């Protein structure tokens, strides 16, 4: 089980549903729910100031790409540039209702992104994710 995960989505209902299914499926112990990409960057800024043994860094981020002010791609660009110290520890799943082929292509080409999942999160998607090479060790 992943100890700490994060969901960044501007929809409070999606955040609540993701929290429920992730706990129900014993996928993660704690989910940090954040409704703005800017707030997530602030979170990582605060964590970067702490000693490494005190940092609460999620192993996995579920990231919506269609959000106001700062979208998911803008978040990823800022995160990639500002927080290299966390790259080894964090993987990203794009969680979106987008059907734009450009979004799928960007998902495949971003080094931190390990997959794309349609909203809403489902049992079968989580079961498949548990088998992903970078996530599998948490569930063995």
At the first level of CATH, the class is Alpha Beta
Instruction: Please give the share of residues in helix.
Output: 25-40%
Read across the widest sheet, the strand sequence of neighbours is: 2-1-3-4-5
CATH architecture grouping = 3-Layer(aba) Sandwich
Biggest sheet descriptor: 5 strands, parallel
Mean pLDDT over the full residue set: 93
Question: What is the terminal-to-terminal distance?
Answer: 9 Å
Beta fraction: 15-25%
Q: Which structural class do you get from the secondary structure elements?
A: alpha/beta
Count of beta strands: 5
Rg calc: 14 Å
Low-confidence stretches: none
Q: Figure out the total of helices.
A: 5
Write down the CATH topology: Rossmann fold
Query: Shape from CA axes?
Result: globular
In N-to-C order, the SSE pattern is EHEHEHEHEH
Taken together, the total number of domains comes to 1
CATH superfamily: Response regulator
């Amino acid at each position: 089980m992943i100890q700490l995960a994060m969901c960044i989505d501007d929809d409070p209902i999606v955040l609540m549903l993701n929290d429920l299914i992730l706990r129900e499926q014993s996928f993660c112990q704690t989910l940090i729910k954040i409704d703005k990409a800017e707030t997530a960057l602030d979170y990582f800024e605060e964590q970067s100031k702490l000693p490494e043994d005190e940092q609460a860094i999620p192993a996995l981020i579920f990231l919506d790409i269609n959000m106001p002010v700062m979208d998911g791609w803008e978040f990823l660009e800022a995160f990639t540039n500002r927080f290299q110290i966390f790259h080894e520890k964090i993987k990203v799943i794009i969680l979106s209702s987008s059907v734009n082929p450009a979004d799928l292509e960007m998902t495949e080409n971003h080094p931190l992104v390990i997959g794309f999942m349609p909203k809403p999160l489902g049992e079968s998607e989580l079961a498949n994710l548990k088998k992903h090479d970078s996530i599998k060790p948490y569930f063995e």
